[in-house]
Amino acid sequence: MVANSQKRSWQPREMQMVTEWLMKTHPGDRWQTRVRLGSPSPTSPNPEMSVEEKAMVGMWRRWADAVIFLADKLILVEAAIRPDPGKISQLELYEMLVPHTPELEPWKGLPIEKVLLYAIEDPATVHLARNKGVRAVEYKPDWLNDYMKLLMPRERRGSRFTES
Known about the structure:
Blueprint: H1 13-25, E1 30-37, H2 51-58, E2 62-69, E3 74-80, H3 86-97, E4 112-118, H4 123-131, E5 135-138, H5 144-148
Parallel strand pairs: 3-4, 4-5
Antiparallel strand pairs: 1-2, 2-3
């Protein structure tokens, strides 16, 4: 049962959160959301595949929530209302895919910064992110309090990890 007996409908909250954060923190920079990463064609193409089939295989590429294109670096952003350790692995994979992404050729060779954007802090995940070289950024959108009312109490907070 959902808190307050309201049925929670799916909404692209993470994309809303990352877009708002980008507009506030990078207003003059070039950025894009939902950026496909990796090679658009199979590593060992099947000769029998049609052009359409090869293009369809490319649609299975991974995608970052956002990429910020700066002159001196590329910033990969993964957003989560409540972050989990899997987001860190996703960012590491995305970094590996950047050199194989034809659309990012102009930024090939630039340093890559990985950002985990979150609204509800999970100290264990934030600690792990920082240890892995991922910048953990807290951003609380204006609509977060209303959203929190829809969550079960255990969903309203992160882990109770304390760094020793």
